[in-house]
Specification:
The chain contains four helices and seven strands; from the N terminus they run βαβαββαβββα. By secondary structure, the protein is of the alpha/beta class. It has a seven-stranded mixed sheet with strand order 1-7-6-2-5-4-3. Helix 3 links the parallel strand 4 and strand 5. The longest helix is centred in the N-terminal third of the chain and has 14 residues.
């Protein structure tokens, strides 16, 4: 099964989308966040993590320098990766990715740095400039078991 959706979102709508997904996705799910600098990857990740934690004001720093941040959420571990500084998939072993990913809900910024090592069953979130200066175009593509959960999040009345 696969699910694809496209939408334009302002920052508030992008945060709502992330929050709804946070309530539907589970341990072992992987979200790959694609987009140029400033596209909204970290905004999406912060909103997702805050919703999963149930703490709207939680401090969610960018993992650019530590590469990974972990959060103990009520429904399980969340691992937030920023692969920008990695040169390839071979470096994932050194940061413990392969041990953590199956037991965490994983968000990955700059996934193209290690695309070939990511799970095939995942949600790809592509963020780009939207129709207005304050909006982002969001393209979602989910395949595998995660697709049903993404479809439930996108159902009418959820956003």
């Amino acid at each position: 099964m696969s699910v694809t959706a496209h939408m334009d979102c302002d920052e508030a709508a992008l945060s709502r989308l992330a929050a709804v997904l946070a309530l539907k996705l589970v341990t072992g799910d992987c979200i790959a966040l694609h987009g140029d600098l400033g596209a909204g990857k970290t905004t999406f990740a912060r909103a997702f993590i805050r919703a999963a934690l149930g703490e709207p004001e939680a401090e969610v720093p960018s993992p650019t320098f530590p590469i990974e941040q972990q959060y103990d959420a009520p429904r399980g571990l969340i691992a937030h990766y920023d692969l920008y500084r990695l040169s390839g998939a071979d470096e994932l072993e050194g940061i413990g990715f392969f041990e953590t990913q199956p037991r965490a809900l994983t968000l990955i910024e700059w996934p193209e740095r290690a695309q070939e090592a990511l799970p095939l069953d995942r949600l790809d979130v592509m963020l780009s400039a939207g129709a207005t200066a304050d909006s982002r175009h969001v393209a979602l593509h989910a395949q595998g078991a995660i697709a049903a959960r993404v479809a439930a999040a996108l159902a009418p009345g959820q956003l």
